[in-house]
Amino acid sequence: AEGEELCGDEEVVAAPVRVVWARAIRKTRGTEPGALLGFARATTDGALCACIWDVAVAPAWQRLGIGRALVERLATGLADDGITSLALFSEPGAVRMYERLGFVQAQAQGGGGVRGMNLQQKTKARIKGELAKEDAEADAQRRAQEVAEESRAAL
Fold this sequence. Notes:
With 155 residues, this protein is α+β, with helices and mostly antiparallel strands.
């Protein structure tokens, strides 16, 4: 009927956003301490589902595991919030990285080669265990590089 109200009051609810980033801790690769190396961002419904919208790493710092670490830390934080389903859209060149992190390609593919992917969240304990192992491996590699640099400097 004319003038009939079809819905009640409207409430605008801001979607929770989670952001993680990586910054340089010392001057290296032409980067000053504190410079932003990369970041990842996700929005969530605050209950079950989240979508990763951005994972960006500065070109000089790509292919060093920073993107993977950002996604893992983002996923861990979301799992701590109770999120069990995590989705994202990926550029074709990054699909393998996400697959290694447990994402699977969705059936539909968007325009421009962008692919939808989904991850049924791993358990928090497994994610945290994997992160601890990778952190230990990264620390060991860093220490080995420092020892090698000190050895070269001593010669």
